Amino acid sequence: MTESTSRAVRRGALVELEVGEDVRGSSRFNEDIAPTRLEARTWSRWNIAALWVGMAICVPTYTLGGVLTAYFGLSVGEALLTILLANIVVLVPLTLNAFPGTKFGIPFPVVLRSSFGIRGSNVPCLIRALVGCGWFGIQTMFGGLAIHLLLSAIFPPWRALDGVGEVIGFFLFGAMNLYVVIRGAESIKWLETLAAPLLLAVGIGLMVWAMPHVSIDELMSQPPSRPEGASVFGYFFAGLTAMVGFWATLSLNIPDFSRFAKSQKDQIVGQIIGLPLTMFFFAALGVVMTAASASLVGETVSDPVSLIGHIDSPVWVVIAMVLIIVATLSTNTAANIVSPTNDFQNIAPKLIDQTRGTLLTGLVGVLLMGYDLLQKAGLIDAGVTLESLYSNWLLGYSSLLGPIAGIMAVDYFLIKRQWLDVASLYQDGAAYPAYNPAGFIAFLVPVALTLFSLVAGVWTWFYDYGWFTGSALGAIVYYAASKLLMKPMAAVQPEGLVEEGAR
């Protein structure tokens, strides 16, 4: 029998909400974004680590070293060090913002209701969702190309379809992604846990294959592309900011996954094990494989899908493309679909459930890539490839999300002192306002300064180091605005919290 009033029960270090009719009947609640029950919090540190391995091993990671050397003026050694340091840095907001998800079992949109308001949370949610949908489209393009090359190797006449084959592959791969997410968190957990060791083994195999064809000493001694005599620090910190921005989105919606963790220790250790070294290794693999490609296939190729497509053996192409598909699937489902799905549900939980949110994510992703799909299908003739344009735009756009990361951390640890009234987060007019002005002020101030520095050409450092400046300023402004504008909430156990076993 369901109680009329919800109550929070502390079970060890975790808090579980026993949902009553007051929350269940609220327009801000549905079962898919409800607090995770304790029996469903089954992800160990190894599941969390596997999640990051599955997300980090993807085509964009493979190309990061080349991006830093070609566009940021870094040497190969400097580029790899930058990638390693960036992923150590990004562990800080990742682990901090994962805390409320793990402790209370709540997803990212519900966590945001504390700092932006019950309805105001939709603004940062939709900003995050748009980034996720864009990356979903880009990764699905890579997956669709892999499916096209796979079918071409199995059925040679398929190759004649050319761009149309890639479009068909895009929709096939997209459908695979959506199916996994619609199946739920356990399906994602299973996929990531299965894919992680396989992808690591393949990466090691590719490194062994490429090493005889490249001189590491020559590779590391190549001069950087920046002007001779220029200081490395400006180029290094610009590259560091861009690399931190690579996972800026996940540093926000990490509660979408940490809500399933067994404990805070599991989410912290799992992320430390899974993220920095995997990113470093696969970026290093991209540098080595690109350098070795001239010897392997007769020309320099920086895209792993295209590189494998140059292999003469159909058997190896089939095997490699299946692995590329698995790698991209494991990245896309977790990194680019889960968050938009939850974010869209936050708008109207009674109307949009997980299935509808997932389908809406797919639809927006297709629309964002529509121009490129029409171009590949030969329906329009244009020389602009939106994959590259979207990639550049999304990396810059992600840096604007820094303030939200700072706001979330300050709200939970300093303002709310690690206690949230979970039942009230699912109800209008309860303990939390519809719109929290402190959250919007703290978000808009750094974003306005970032755009001003970009347009006016002054304070260029504020834009160049946008994620760092934005997150720091957002955190400071939020703390000050909360103290000045908001009524203090009790920084103690929420009303109704009971110890396990209490009646």
Structural commentary:
The protein is mainly alpha-helical. The protein has a single domain, classed as Hydantoin permease. It has a three-stranded mixed β-sheet. A hairpin with a 2-residue loop joins strand 1 and strand 2.
Question: What global shape is seen?
Answer: globular
Let me know the average pLDDT.
Answer: 87
Strand and helix order: EEHHHHHHHHHHHHHHHHHHHHHHHHHE
DSSP helical segment count:
25
The rounded distance between the terminal residues' Cα atoms is 16 Å
Superfamily (CATH H level) name: Hydantoin permease
What is this structure's SSE topology?
Blueprint (H helix, E strand, L loop, with lengths): L6 E5 L2 E5 L2 H4 L20 H12 L2 H4 L1 H8 L4 H14 L1 H14 L3 H9 L5 H33 L8 H21 L1 H26 L5 H6 L10 H15 L3 H4 L1 H4 L5 H11 L1 H22 L6 H6 L4 H34 L6 H15 L1 H7 L9 H14 L2 H14 L21 H20 L3 H5 L1 H20 L12 E2 L4
Parallel strand pairs: 1-3
Antiparallel strand pairs: 1-2
Helix pairs in contact: 2-10, 2-15, 2-18, 4-5, 5-12, 5-16, 6-15, 6-22, 7-8, 7-22, 8-9, 8-18, 8-19, 8-21, 9-18, 9-19, 10-16, 10-18, 12-21, 18-19, 22-25, 23-25
Keywords:
503 residues; mainly alpha; Hydantoin permease; 25 helices; globular; Pur-cyt_permease; NCS1 family nucleobase:cation symporter-1; Uracil/uridine/allantoin_perm; membrane
Provide a quick synopsis of the model.
Helix content is about 70%, strand content about 0%. Belongs to the purine-cytosine permease (2.A.39) family.
